[in-house]
Amino acid sequence: MPSSLHALVTGASAGIGAEFARQLAASGCGVVLTARRADRLEALAGELRERHEVDVVCLPADLADPRAPAQLFEECARRGLAIDVLVNNAGYGVTGSFLSRPWQTHADFIQVLMTAPAELCHRFLPAMRERGRGRIVNVASLAGLIPAPAGHTLYAASKAYLIKFSQALSLENRAYGVHVLACCPGFTHSEFHDVTGTREQMKGMPRWMWMDADTVVRDALAAVDRGDSIRVSGRINRAIKGLVKLLPDRLGERLIAGGGKNFRDST
What we know:
Elements: E1 6-10, H1 15-26, E2 30-34, H2 38-52, E3 56-58, H3 68-78, E4 83-88, H4 103-131, E5 134-139, H5 155-173, E6 178-184, E7 187-188, H6 192-196, H7 199-202, E8 210-211, H8 213-226, E9 230-232, H9 235-246, H10 249-260
Helix pairs in contact: 1-2, 1-8, 3-4, 4-5
Keywords: Oxidoreductase
Protein name: Short-subunit dehydrogenase
Family: Belongs to the short-chain dehydrogenases/reductases (SDR) family.
């Protein structure tokens, strides 16, 4: 990508988000990093500037704040940053059953994983269409394509939303040169399970179920450039998706429920 381009990556402080920033910077794209942890953003920014000599801007923000998407858009405009690549990666999990958490916890989750990505797309898309080029990657999950187990009640629902949203947005914007992708990884090595407190449960998962962030991101960037609207990362995950589609709903739910209790807190 030409050096004049800028990518905005949310949730860029670690894991898949940080890897998106690294690979986009390696391609010559300027990067705008946003997440809550300013110190982590600055450390990553220093790494990217030194390795790739690209423009890197840090805009710390908490997307649980309903004002944050507009503030990010306005700050990019104030700095004259044209966002040609938008990666909606920010996300986390809420453990436990739906009623075990106060509503505000769920409201914040919906804001970060559903409302903020939609608003950022709505704000940055018009300029992409005017320029006749743009890329949007919404980081969803294999969880949005298979039956949802108990626990993390809104997680799979939010990912299914991102998948359908991305499909529709892709169809609406292809004619304008804007490609939209729902990236659907399975289990990926990152800090996700440390944050949710489920690292111990995950130790029981077989090694062949896991992917690394580098592979997931490389695959997603190639897919969005091809014009795909959905990309499930990894052959094993694509096989799981295909198998679940063939099963009756009730049998699929039983299989997921049986395996899900080993790594989810449904209390």
